[in-house]
Amino acid sequence: MNKKTIKDVDWQGKRALVRVDFNVPLSDGHITDDARIRAALPTIEYLLENGASVVLMSHLGRPKGKPNPDLSLKVAADHLDALIDAPVRFCPETTGPMAESTAAALKPGEVLLLENTRFDPREKKNDPEMAQQLAKLGDVFVNDAFGSAHRAHASTTGVAQYLPAVAGFLMEKELDYLGDALENPRSPFVAILGGAKISDKIGVIQALLEKVDTILIGGGMANTFLVSEGYPMGASLVEQESIATAAGLMEKGADIIQLPVDLRVADQFAADAENKVVNVEDVPDGWMALDIGPATIAHFSNWLAGAKTVIWNGPMGVFEFPVFAQGTVAVAEMLAGLEDATTIIGGGDSAAAVRQAGLDDKISHVSTGGGASLEFLEGKELPGVAALNDRE
Fold it and tell me: Other C-beta atoms within 10 Å of 263: how many?
């Protein structure tokens, strides 16, 4: 990575304005998974240990440009306060006089978390006025929010126009792992793609066809590929407008793309639906594929057996329903069991599935950014990365 990082700055007496990704899942006002907050701790603790005060900013959810008490970051400030040995303050504003005076009063070793950046309609517009107001809150901008690096917002790219801008440890780690996998992979290099829609991943598949040895496709997106190969898929989710695209990808990647050979199908979309395993040519009318089957798990396992680099993005089925989570859990277990392989989970639902299975410590790198990792794999330049200062 040729971008400056927090190690390139003398932090003594400086105020770090840090974009973190505290977009955590909530239930009844409580954080249900704090992985993204914990992922920011190495950067925050390094800054504090090296004499800085720290002003944090993040978005949470989709408040549509106006305050929403259910999406306040106060809950994240309280949680962070319990995780680190430093005082954490919360400012109920993102910009303006209160934010400026509270930030100015910070002493080295203290932390301030600003209110949800997306409460301000200017954030998503990358409004220069908001970016300038944010820049008043720090001496150096640190972007540690890989999960938002594909967004050109005021707090991710705009503020970098007005302050020196460097990467935090999480951003650096994400770019190093993903970049190395794409530029210098050890072979065999296997990509596993799942999730509901092929349309979200057409660009990724096209880019990966040039780089990988094998692509294993599961999840809802496999249905569209199977239809393009002539299999009837009953009532399964199929993107009619993408069938021709899938057929073209299959033709181009005939020796690379591997599809399911059997499926777990259900008579309705429900956790307690009647279900059974059928071969891909035998999906009954009115039934829908909600997971890969045991023969596919074995088929995929054979392709993964000797892999040295693996990237996985997207679950193999509707893993929110336990009976249809078997394929996703099996893939997670396969990756956890690979010896001498670099295994990368590309954020989103696959990352959640790995954590649910308690296997995240057996994976080389679990990305914090689903959308950002997809765009990176597609070869797109991420605005939040492009805005950082280059190493000379």
Answer: 32
pLDDT 10s digits, 33-42? 898 999 999 9
Residues 340-371: pLDDT tens digits?
999 999 877 888 888 888 998 999 999 988 88
385 to 1, 3, 15, 313, 390: CA distances (angstroms): 10, 8, 21, 21, 10
Q: Where are the alpha helices (DSSP H) in the chain?
A: 35-49, 74-83, 97-104, 128-135, 169-183, 202-209, 221-228, 243-252, 294-304, 326-337, 348-356, 370-377, 383-386
Per the structure block, which two tokens stand in for 51?
Answer: 């004499």
Global confidence as pTM: 0.89
Pairing of strands 309-313, 189-193: parallel
Hey, which residues are catalytic here? 36, 197, 348, 371
Q: Could you give the domains of the chain?
A: 6-171 (3.40.50.1260), 178-377 (3.40.50.1260)
The Cα–Cα gap between 48 and 72 comes to: 25
Q: What is the DSSP string of 114-146?
A: E--GGGSTTTTTT-HHHHHHHHTT-SEEEE--G
